[in-house]
Write a structure and sequence with these properties.
5 helices; 157 residues; mainly alpha
Length: 157
Amino acid sequence: MLRSAISSILKRLPAKKALAHCDGPCGVYDPASARIAAEAVLSMTKKLIALAPPEGNDPIAWATYNNTFSRFVAVKEEQAQETKKELLILWTDYFKPEHLASFPDLHDTFWKAAKLCSACKVNIDQGKAEELMAAVEKIHNMFWTSKGRSDSWTTAS
């Protein structure tokens, strides 16, 4: 009874509109998450290239191969999408018009990096995965320079 009374009252009250200046109102940004995801793309691409199909017609060997191949592809595509998401957050939420004075190629850099994420999703191309890592490194350097810092680029692998 009490629950239905409270529910009835709440339905009649207008909801307050919540506002934030961006998707991440906390102001905490870091390109590290994009680097980690891009590094996973490169790792999975290398693993896919190295994965050899089994010889013969052993159904268990082929099932294992197909399962492993599918998992590597799924992780590669998921991490390429995650890289793109993290880069787009930096591009659209962190970087402001005033950053263009310091980084006139900012938009082109991010646009090309996003395109590389897509290329890495639809292909098994180590060159594209390495280009993506280089693009994320360039964005890393832009980001930390914009904060007046020179944090070093460090990869996990």
